[in-house]
Amino acid sequence: MIHLLVFLSVLCIAASGCPTIITRAQWGGKNPTCRSRLSTPVPNVVIHHTEGAFCNSRATCSAQVRNIQSYHMKTRDWCDIGYNFLIGEDGQVYEGRGWTTLGGHAKAYSPISSGISFIGSFTSRQPNNAALNAAKNLIACGVSRRFIKSNYVLKGHRNVMSTSCPGNSLYRVIQGWPHFKA
User: Fold this and answer.
1) Residue 13 DSSP label
2) If pLDDT is split at 50, 70 and 90, which confidence band does 144 have?
3) Between vectors from CA 76 to CA 72 and to CA 81, what angle results, nearest 5°?
4) Model-wide pTM > 0.85
5) Which residues, 6+ apart, have CB-to-CB distance to 132 below 8 Å?
6) CA-angle at 113, arms to 112 and 116, nearest 5°
7) How many CB atoms lie within 10 A of CB 165?
8) What mean pLDDT is predicted for residues 22-36?
């Protein structure tokens, strides 16, 4: 039965071209205090990790995304969660600022990229296959819906700012993905 469900899930992604995205309302997001339009299609995708705890169920991932939003808004004094999307090890995509709202994830690169963050710390381990596949499907979706340019450049956060993000293990993985350029 589980194999059938996985097959049907993959079939649905292939048919629609896009993964299911858990909306802000579904994960319990707060309303942003500001919003600026992101000019799409963007020429870049920037991969991050959130540091901290990982998650592997919709309940734990939703809680983590709420925690991240709270940290960004209360501690960092941002107007919303910084990322456009977040990826959990439950294989789900969680809406941050979405496709058309300017992110706050990479200073100078935020206006020219979509910021995708894996939930957890990936310095000494890589995300599971469900999470990695969800991110690849999300990028393909962005290209097919013209939110991301077809000739986009994929970068790790460390390629655009002085940081160790997205962690050494995840960074090694994305270096093998199409469109990667340090």
Assistant:
1) H
2) very high
3) 20
4) yes
5) 126, 173
6) 165
7) 25
8) 97
Q: How many CA atoms lie within 13 A of 100 on its CB side?
A: 2
Distance CA 37, CA 88 (A): 26
Query: What are the tens digits of pLDDT across the range 55-66?
Result: 999 999 999 999
* Average predicted confidence (pLDDT) for the chain: 92
Q: Are strands 85-87 and 93-95 parallel, antiparallel or unpaired?
A: antiparallel
Tokens of 144: 């097919």
**64 near 119, Cβ under 8 Å?**
yes
CA 31 to chain centre: 19
Mean pLDDT of 18-45: 97
**Is the Cα torsion angle 12, 180, 172, 120 positive or negative in sign?**
negative
The Cα–Cα gap between 149 and 146 comes to 6
The whole-angstrom separation of Cα 154 and Cα 13 is 22
3-state secondary structure of 21: strand
- Answer for the pair 58, 91: CB distance below 8 angstroms, yes or no: no
Tokens standing for residue 91 = 């294989």
User: Locate tokens 């020429």: which residue?
Assistant: 43
Q: Residues 127, 120: contact at Cβ < 8 Å?
A: yes
Query: CA 71, CA 19: separation in Å to the nearest integer?
Result: 27
Tell me how far apart the alpha carbons of residues 82 and 166 are, in angstroms, rounded to a whole number: 15
